[in-house]
Design brief:
The protein is an alpha/beta fold and 283 residues long. The protein has two domains: 202 residues, Rossmann fold, CATH 3.40.50; 64 residues, Helicase, Ruva Protein, domain 3 (Orthogonal Bundle). Helix content is 40%, strand content 18%. It contains twelve helices and nine strands. Strands 4-3-2-5-6-9-7 form a seven-stranded mixed β-sheet, with helices on both faces. The N and C termini lie far apart (61 Å).
């Protein structure tokens, strides 16, 4: 098979299968041949690992994963792609395509069926428009996976990798840090993709914690508190929490002060432990 990062090859394949790239699916194919090996290096997988890929596209990253891992299962929602992938992945025995919406799929059952006894990683060039929902499903469902290595928009990567309690932190930063340790690995210029996005991309690796970073009694309430705090970034944590959760402001201020913080503290100044302390006081 010719090099799948070659633009002329991509165009020929698209024409052959009457395939037009979809903005709705956020399709940007990798055309920088150095990127797939670099992404797989960042994931740390080898021949003992199973890999779950989300959105294989025409198989550029998929082929590198299949070369380096024991087995690759790729989930794709675009029903136009299987015939094209059947050609690009022909003869790759350790590859399987699953035509499903990743947000609706039973990923736990899929992983247990396809990767028995293997350490499992998720590796993907994620559609930018749906990065947060996919990452939160992968983490929140507490799947039997060791790590996630994803290519996303740089702005989203900064949020995924930001430490709680820092200026760049957000609700998703806190959620990621609760479930995993994260690190921004490297960036990729717009010209590394076809069509070229208008922004820089970046790869983030998230290593799943064996236990959450903090212990909370009511996990749903804890995340609801964090989402409310960051829901109105220009407000103080007290104002945002009171508004977001429909609580009396004086009650929220009293809880924040009882937890040891100034009533005017901003949400980005609070760590995971700090939010847990505020939640306890609100109880």
């Amino acid at each position: 098979m010719p090099e799948l990062t070659d633009l002329s090859v991509i165009r020929t394949l698209c024409e052959k299968y009457n395939f037009a790239l979809s903005k709705g699916f956020g399709q940007n194919f990798i055309i920088n041949p150095g990127l797939p090996p670099k992404i797989v290096d960042a994931s740390g997988v080898d021949k003992s690992w199973g890999v779950l890929e989300i959105g294989p596209g025409i198989g550029v990253l998929t082929k590198e994963l299949a070369r380096r891992a024991a087995k690759v299962v790729s989930i794709e929602v675009d029903e136009r792609l299987p015939p094209l992938l059947a050609e690009t992945m022909a003869g790759v025995e350790n590859f399987k395509l699953v035509l499903q919406d990743v947000l609706k799929a039973d990923l736990r059952a899929l992983i247990e069926e396809e990767f028995p006894g293997m350490p499992v990683a998720v590796c993907a060039n994620l559609p930018y428009y749906i990065t947060s929902p996919i990452v939160m499903k992968l983490l929140g469902d507490r799947l039997p996976i060791r790590n996630l290595t994803v290519m996303v928009q740089k702005e989203a990567a900064d949020r995924l990798a930001a430490a709680p309690g820092t200026r760049a932190s957000s609700a998703i930063s806190c959620a990621v840090s609760y479930y995993a340790t994260s690190k921004l690995m490297f960036t990729a210029a717009p010209g590394s993709f076809y069509p070229a996005p208008k922004v820089t991309s970046a790869v983030v690796r998230m290593d799943i914690r064996t236990t959450p970073a903090v212990q909370v009694e009511d996990e749903d309430g804890y995340f609801a508190l964090i989402r409310a705090a960051f829901g109105q970034r220009r407000k103080t944590a007290a104002n945002a929490i009171a508004s977001g959760l429909g609580l009396p402001k004086d009650k929220v201020i009293a809880a924040i002060e009882a937890a040891g913080f100034d009533a005017r503290i901003r949400p980005e100044a609070l760590t995971l432990e700090d939010f847990a302390a505020v939640q306890r006081e609100l109880k």
